[in-house]
Amino acid sequence: MMGCIRLANYKLISFDKIPSTQDYAHELVVSGRATDHTAVLAMAQSDGRGRYRRKWVSHHGNLYVSFIFDAPERDARLSYAVAVAIAETIASFGVHPTIKWPNDILVDGKKIAGTLIEYSGSFVIVGIGINVNSNPTVDRYKTTKMDNYSETPLMELLNRLMRNMDKWRRADFRAVRTRWTELASCINCTVRYHGESAELIGINENGALVLRRGTRYLLVYGDEIAI
Q1: pTM
Q2: What's domain 2-183's architecture?
């Protein structure tokens, strides 16, 4: 069943269960029904996905939402604002998150939230999953959930996330960059870039990753590195 209400300056379209909030958001764009500040929420997904179309296990009890925003052009800085917004939302419940590049959120070194950012027409769709009442068992990494640390009402979590999304998307990128760097778990760590090791120093004013290899500094965009 679908519901539609206003919440925190967003048009919220909610479902008990659909295949994918991200795919539904894309359908809104393609059909011409998408508007800025629309959020698609599902209590569960049967075909949730993350980056590289990896399956996102989506049982009832967690937060699965895709935000639709106007986006006349691509912006490499957006992923940092989104990561900070999620981390600040989780921190508001007394939990202490860190950010793993590009925008995974960790607590105690375990993944608690992930993001998928996709551009569609003149919009950007920001899909976010946060483990609240359950966390999947994944071979590639350890996971955790909000309920291990704090009582987290789902709609209050969404409300705070919406407000933080607006706050950090509108913030001067210097503030985003500073906060992202404070929260990042990967600063000064070794990464792989084009098959060779480099040190991740930070991000620049345009959202590029700054790497150091010996005495050389490299600016990197997109999914070109592995941590």
Answers
A1: 0.92
A2: 2-Layer Sandwich (3.30)
3-state class (DSSP) for residue 166:
helix
Q: Are strands 196-203 and 209-213 parallel, antiparallel or unpaired?
A: antiparallel
- Render 40-81 in DSSP notation, one character per residue: EEEEEESS-B-GGG-B----TTSEEEEEEEE-SS--TTHHHH
Alpha carbons 86 and 90: distance in angstroms, whole number: 6
Tell me the per-residue pLDDT of 105-153, one tens digit each, with 9 for 90 and over. 999 999 999 999 999 999 999 999 999 999 988 887 899 999 999 999 9
Quick one: which H or E segment has residue 180?
helix 173-183
Domain ranges for the chain, please list them: 2-183, 190-226
Assess contact for 99 and 107: CB atoms under 8 A. Answer: no
